[in-house]
Amino acid sequence: MRTKIRLLLLSLSLIATNGVVLAANDVMALFTAAQSGKIERTQVLLTSGVDINGKTASGRTALMGAAFSGNVRVVKLLIAHGADYSVADNNGNTALGDAAVFGHEETVKVLIAVGSDVNAADKKGLTILAKVKKAGHQGVAKLLEAAGASEGGGDAEEE
Prior knowledge:
The chain has eight helices and no strands. It is mainly alpha-helical.
């Protein structure tokens, strides 16, 4: 009898563990689909109930993945489904920061329009505008400045 109980408990433990792993895998699948611009796959995962604001091990969300790659259609889809655009990853980077640093002007416009913080700074104190200017994306810098962004002395590398 004790052996059967132990086997049952072991089985329940494995099911619970697999449930957590599957949830983490689902978040990673959503992140990958969003970053790759696979809008249909992203939609299917959202419809199946994957946490839209779920984070990878480095704190990245699907919205950050889509913004990083400049997948504006996926960014719009995620925002329409309630993605939190104010979330920062483990390094303090936001979706707007990702889109801006890589020069994705259309994605930047969308994220500014929904109210993303144009003055967000990462954990090193670097503002989005400071990073964008360093990367040489003048068009994005103009968009950020028009939305009220400032370097704010946050460029820690120059201090």
